[in-house]
């Protein structure tokens, strides 16, 4: 198992709180990380029917079997247990008593806010980042757009391979062909998690909905159009989309409020958090097909947003990411908020830099009246350089 950036953050949280909750998509490596970080903790999986029955029918007895700290895997399977965890964490002094993992964020977060407010820290683990795959430190969040990374070097990896494979740990650890593994992952998600979260009767319609979302990746979200194309109501589309969000399959980037006296677009943009899954949903069957596919630019933009999300979440920070677009069509793909500072980031999938790549950043700087402010561009090439006053990152240095 590759080292995870989140591990020291997880250990630190366990020294501060009696309960630490680790959430993320199914198969992102939560159980493995928890066991790596706390090898001396007892372990129980609430996926096991006998353990789940014990926890739900006799919660006090279930917790009493653990004399010390314990990892409770898939904790959302026994939500009533949380009230007893609250009582025990109040009565027994010490931090890191309970490490909870779960892949259904909505149910976990709602229960934590009700039962464990002030007693629990919540961390999120996404699939492997590029930094984790290549065993290097993540890009410094604070220096994005300000300085070239000190270890930046010519990329040796294949961008199409990275986009096509995605970051789910099992693919990398076991060397499984990504499309084979992702087909099973998707089928399990539809047939199991969606049924539990939504009680959806028409799984075919939900599958069609996910496919339509994939076709709209990196675009402004028009929920009415999405609902009409899928043959469902606007309310159903909103509910289904929230499930994709809480399952950590997609993320919505909100428009930034700064308007420069311009009329702004108010709709969010839709991104997938794993490009391997996105290519599977788009029925792209090989990295060579991806190289010339019409959706390559949208997939690459999803990749950049995902890597920035992982960079923040795996260091225990909130990813303050937005985008900016006015009614005239001027746009900056990503705005990174750093306190009072805002760093505009453009995304271009091309491997060869062109001067017009920087047009959106120049327009933003002119409106903001900060022509020398930090700015970044991420492109599909293999060198990180400074050009036109902008730190220009190779995708491989994210």
Provide a descriptive summary of the structure in words.
Helices cover 42% and strands 17% of the residues. The protein is α/β, with parallel strands linked by helices. Strands 7-6-8-9-10-11-13-12 form an 8-stranded mixed sheet, with helices on both faces. It has a 5-stranded parallel sheet with strand order 2-3-4-1-5, sandwiched between helices. It has 2 domains: 7-124, P-loop containing nucleotide triphosphate hydrolases (Rossmann fold), CATH 3.40.50; 130-397, no CATH class. The two termini are 21 Å apart. The radius of gyration is 22 Å and the shape is globular.
Write a brief caption for the model.
The protein has 17 helices and 13 strands.
Percent of residues in helices comes to 40-55%
First and last CA, distance: 21 Å
Based on secondary structure, the structural category is: alpha/beta
Unreliably modeled segments: none
Count of individual beta strands:
13
């Amino acid at each position: 198992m590759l080292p995870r950036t989140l591990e020291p953050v997880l250990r630190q949280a366990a020294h501060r709180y009696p309960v630490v909750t680790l959430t993320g998509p199914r198969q992102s490596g939560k159980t493995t990380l928890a066991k790596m970080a706390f090898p001396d903790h007892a372990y129980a999986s609430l996926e096991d029917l006998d353990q789940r029955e014990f926890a739900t029918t006799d919660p006090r007895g279930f917790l009493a079997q653990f004399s010390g700290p314990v990892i409770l895997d898939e904790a959302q399977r026994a939500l009533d247990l949380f009230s007893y965890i609250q009582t025990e964490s109040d009565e027994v002094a010490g931090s890191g008593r309970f490490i909870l993992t779960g892949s259904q964020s909505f149910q976990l977060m709602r229960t934590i806010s009700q039962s464990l407010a002030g007693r629990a820290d919540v961390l999120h683990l996404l699939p492997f980042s590029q930094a984790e795959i290549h065993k290097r430190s993540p890009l410094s969040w604070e220096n994005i757009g300000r300085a070239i990374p000190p270890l930046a070097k010519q990329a040796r990896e294949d961008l199409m391979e990275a986009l096509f494979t995605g970051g789910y740990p099992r693919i990398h650890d076991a060397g499984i062909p990504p499309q084979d593994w992702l087909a099973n992952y998707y089928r399990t998600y539809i047939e199991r998690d969606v049924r539990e979260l939504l009680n959806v009767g028409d799984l075919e319609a939900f599958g069609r909905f996910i496919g339509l979302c994939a076709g709209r990746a990196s675009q402004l979200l028009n929920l009415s159009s999405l609902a009409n194309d899928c043959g469902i109501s606007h309310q159903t589309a909103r509910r289904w989309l929230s499930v994709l969000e809480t399952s950590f399959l997609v993320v919505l980037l909100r428009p930034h409020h700064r308007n420069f006296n311009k009329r702004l677009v108010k709709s969010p943009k839709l991104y997938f958090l794993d490009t391997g899954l996105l290519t599977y949903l788009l029925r792209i069957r090989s990295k060579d097909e991806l190289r010339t596919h019409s959706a390559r630019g949208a997939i690459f933009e999803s990749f950049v947003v995902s890597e920035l999300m992982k960079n923040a979440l795996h260091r225990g920070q909130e990813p303050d990411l937005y985008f900016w677009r006015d009614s005239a069509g001027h746009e900056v793909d990503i705005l990174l908020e750093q306190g009072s500072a805002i760093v505009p980031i453009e995304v271009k999938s091309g491997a060869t830099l062109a001067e017009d790549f920087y047009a959106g950043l120049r327009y933003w700087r002119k409106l903001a009246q900060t022509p020398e402010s930090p700015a970044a561009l991420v492109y599909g090439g293999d060198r990180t350089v400074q050009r036109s006053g902008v730190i220009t990152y190779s995708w491989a240095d994210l």
